[in-house]
Amino acid sequence: MLLILLLGAAAVWSFAAARAHGWWFPENVSVFGARIDALFDLNLWITGGVFVLVFALLAWTVARGALPGRARPVHGDLRLELVWTLVPAAIFVGLAVAQLDEWRELKYAGARPHVAVTARVVASQFDWHFVYPGPDRRFDTLDDLETTYELVVPAGEPVVLQLVSRDVIHSFFVPGLRLKQDVVPGMRPEVWFEVRGPADLELVCAELCGWGHYKMAGRVRVVPRAAFDAHLAALERAFRSNGKDER
Question: What's the topology of domain 119-241?
Fold first, then answer.
């Protein structure tokens, strides 16, 4: 029992030390990231408490069973079975209710900002490609602006991305934004975020997508609106100089 308590205390200390020294999550830059972190912490404390409780009961059971004397077989306990069924069910329902507002705001199309799609993210083995609408502000036309590896978006305003896969299931994951969304062939989900100021963020694929999954990485660079407009202008100049505009 003492060993179990010591291990539990060590786990709590390591958790607190990791947060205090910045060894926990990457710095959050998203306007909704703090709420995601709060939900994660809530889940962690609940599951951590259950972990300690279960192993303490296990240690007590082992110690009690090691006592001398004849063992008494137990065929079941209805009250105990009700407890270990209803308590987890209540916890799951409580967690579901606690995250409803965040889920609605982040995932429900009717609740997110009503702005045009900033860029289309195209995932393929094993690269990220990004498509911006050209001067006509529409996708799938001859003036689409394409780039790879680095996604540049404006700061201080909502950014909506459309996600597309060319081959297998990928997962668009930007830890600094607390944003993760599966990219499934045949579907075009949209995600949104907002970052108050400039940032340079890591983008990775969080779904095992083949032998080169480990190298499917990119960057998300958040810049002021003027710098974003300049980036689009540079892409358009490169587009025209390459002779791709056939209109």
Answer: Immunoglobulin-like (2.60.40)
